[in-house]
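User: Just a sanity check before I run the rest of the batch. Below are the structure tokens for the first item. I only need the designed sequence back.
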């Protein structure tokens, strides 16, 4: 190879070269033998410390009589080889990260050792010789090595070799702001592989620790990094190794990959969890791996997530009895509303009679494939053709909704809990299809390791759970309330007015939240804020840095990508909506805590601030009609939960502007105490 001429590369195999260079430095008067014993050196050090002088070698053998030196060498006396620091020497470097750095060599280090008495070269001598011998032009290393540059620079000067350009990067810290070490977690590249991280994502994330390309772009391929990297954009401040940020970067790389590109990696993760039987049929194994991958594609942050998600889907966490549900939990509160009991019993009845749809054993992948046999990764997209299981399931849901007079979350949440044991998750037909693959007689899945609970076992457990539900929670509260209203005070049915009759005859308008199974809008802490100050980010071409008052003791600092769309002077003093429960993170080195909400058109070529009524109160929480924003249950999710569970990403598709430019959630306006928020963009998105 072209680099072969610089070998060997192990320092242990280059000893002869180091000895030869050391001898040449002695011969040229730039180094010398030192015969001081360890005891003499200890005494020298103690004396200097007692006098308050920084300890360094005092030059005892620097100008010794050559005949005395020759005699001691011939007598076999042990000696080290020391570098002769030139009188008054200074070393100055223009560090790419830290700027100009200089040292008074004579006062700082004294005559330092090149070769130990055993003949073994010291680190700084090896490094300098290798840099000179191999033609190294640029040295990028940790700031801990900055002081080593003094010795290496002196050696390179003595050898007549050019110094490389140096860039001393700040240390990487753990989330506790201490130097990253083994106690912070994974200690090897292989551990990150075992944890499901992609090599390209690791390279991408590590490159961002202390560097950016001047834009708000954070996702790069290897080739893009090579093209974009510029040593002059390395930042001086230390970076924190943020595992959540690494997972986010990894998730973005996974989203850019096709399902087929990830299959081998997911199969590896399934193997780590012993979920696949040894000697399993290759065709059936491929089907299960494909289904596992497609199911988790949009939610997984690592390939390990696909395997652990499969365990969750194949398991069934519904407790044995209603009383076992955690008090105040979303599931218990939902069951108390009364819809669950009737819907669950209906599912049991239909399943036992054979009328409830189940995955077709001849085409268990239907839920994961579209009409052109391409993998479906969007959870909202229904697979299969009109005769397939997903379509039959959809038709059954419509039938149950009509029969039981329920819709939206009042139908889908009970169905999900009954069939999967969870309140949230991926599309139910996809989950049931994965379960069917794992429940076949000749399945490739290790049922014990995967925790498989079959559909028969689930519905048997569901029966027991329903039997334990108190009578008061077996009837829908809404249905009971509606019935009372219809009967009226005197027990007679209220007659319809002409207007009511006309309204009843009008076609029903679909509720945008019908079928919505995402987190509640109350999970978001959206507040009214005022921008006090705006300045341009020094290192990112598209970012503004903003100081925003959101009603807290101190204003928040937030970075936004508004620079291509607005001027700084147009932002200062503006009232805005701020998503406040996002975890603080650095954007191009700037600590940003929150996000300014804006409206944009379909292709995001036009972006405008959401307008807040001038009488709104700074720090007040924005509400949405039809949702309870009071009490503990309506409290915003914790910052970490919003990020880890991608809460905003799930809600964002339902944050849109109406045909009149009103920002809405599922067609319901965003409200302040002073009225409705507005925007100049019609039928756009809010993010």
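Assistant: Here's the designed sequence for the first item:
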């Amino acid at each position: 190879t072209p680099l072969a001429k610089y070998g060997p590369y192990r320092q242990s195999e280059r000893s002869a070269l180091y000895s030869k260079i050391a001898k040449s430095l002695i011969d040229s008067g730039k180094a010398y033998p030192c015969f001081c014993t360890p005891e003499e050196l200890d005494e020298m050090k103690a004396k200097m410390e007692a006098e308050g002088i920084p300890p360094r070698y005092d030059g005892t053998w620097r100008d010794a009589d050559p005949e005395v030196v020759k005699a001691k060498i011939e007598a076999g006396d042990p000696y080290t080889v020391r570098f002769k620091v030139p009188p008054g020497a200074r070393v100055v470097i223009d560090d790419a990260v830290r700027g100009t750095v200089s040292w008074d060599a004579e006062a700082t280090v004294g005559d330092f050792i090149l070769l130990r008495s055993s003949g073994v070269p010291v680190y700084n001598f090896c490094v300098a010789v290798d840099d000179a011998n191999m033609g190294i032009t640029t040295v990028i290393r940790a700031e801990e090595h900055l002081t080593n540059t003094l010795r290496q620079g002196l050696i390179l000067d003595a050898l007549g070799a050019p110094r490389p350009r140096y860039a001393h990067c700040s240390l990487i810290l753990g989330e506790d702001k201490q130097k990253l070490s083994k106690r912070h977690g994974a200690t090897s590249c292989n551990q990150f592989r075992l944890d499901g991280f992609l090599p390209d994502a690791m390279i991408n994330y590590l490159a961002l620790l202390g560097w950016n390309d001047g834009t708000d772009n954070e996702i790069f391929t290897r080739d893009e990094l090579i093209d974009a990297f510029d040593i002059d954009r390395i930042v001086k401040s230390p970076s924190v190794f943020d595992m959540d940020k690494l997972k986010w970067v990894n998730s973005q790389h996974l989203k850019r990959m096709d399902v087929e590109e990830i299959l081998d990696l997911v199969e590896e993760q399934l193997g780590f969890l012993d979920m696949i039987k040894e000697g399993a049929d290759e065709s059936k194994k491929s089907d299960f791996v494909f289904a596992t991958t497609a199911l988790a594609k949009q939610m997984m942050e690592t390939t390990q997530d696909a395997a652990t998600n499969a365990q969750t889907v194949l398991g069934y966490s519904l407790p044995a009895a209603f009383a076992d549900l955690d008090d105040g939990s979303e599931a218990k509160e939902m069951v108390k509303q009364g819809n669950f009991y009737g819907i669950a019993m209906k599912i049991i009845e239909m399943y036992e009679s054979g009328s409830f749809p189940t995955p077709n054993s001849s085409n268990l992948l239907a839920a994961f494939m579209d009409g052109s046999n391409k993998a479906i990764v969007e959870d909202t997209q229904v697979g299969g053709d009109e005769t397939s299981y997903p379509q039959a399931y959809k038709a059954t849901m419509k039938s149950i909704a009509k029969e039981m007079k329920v819709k939206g979350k009042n139908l889908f949440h009970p169905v999900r809990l009954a069939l999967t044991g969870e309140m949230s998750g991926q599309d139910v037909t996809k989950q049931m299809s994965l379960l069917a693959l794992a429940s076949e007689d000749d399945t490739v899945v290790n049922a014990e390791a995967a925790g498989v609970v079959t559909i028969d076992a689930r519905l048997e457990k569901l029966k027991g759970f329903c039997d334990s539900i108190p009578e008061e929670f077996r009837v829908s509260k809404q249905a009971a309330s509606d019935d009372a209203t219809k009967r009226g005070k005197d027990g007679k049915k209220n007659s319809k007015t002409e207007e009511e009759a006309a309204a009843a005859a009008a076609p029903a308008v679909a509720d945008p939240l019908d079928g919505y199974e995402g987190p509640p809008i109350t999970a978001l802490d959206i507040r009214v804020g005022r921008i006090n100050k705006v300045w341009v980010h020094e290192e990112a071409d598209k970012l503004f840095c903003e100081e925003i008052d959101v009603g807290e003791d101190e204003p928040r600092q937030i970075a936004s990508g508004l620079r291509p769309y607005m001027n700084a002077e147009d932002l200062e003093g503006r009232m805005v909506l701020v998503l406040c429960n996002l975890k603080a993170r650095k954007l191009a080195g700037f600590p940003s805590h929150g996000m300014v909400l804006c409206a944009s058109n379909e292709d995001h070529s036009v972006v405008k601030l959401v307008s807040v009524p001038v009488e709104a109160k700074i720090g007040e929480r924005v509400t949405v009609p039809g949702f309870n924003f009071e009490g503990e249950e309506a409290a915003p999710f914790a910052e970490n939960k919003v990020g880890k569970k991608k809460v905003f990403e799930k809600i964002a598709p339902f944050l849109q502007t109406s045909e009149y430019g009103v920002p809405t959630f599922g067609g319901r306006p965003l409200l302040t105490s002073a009225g409705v928020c507005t925007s100049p963009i019609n039928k756009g998105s809010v993010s």
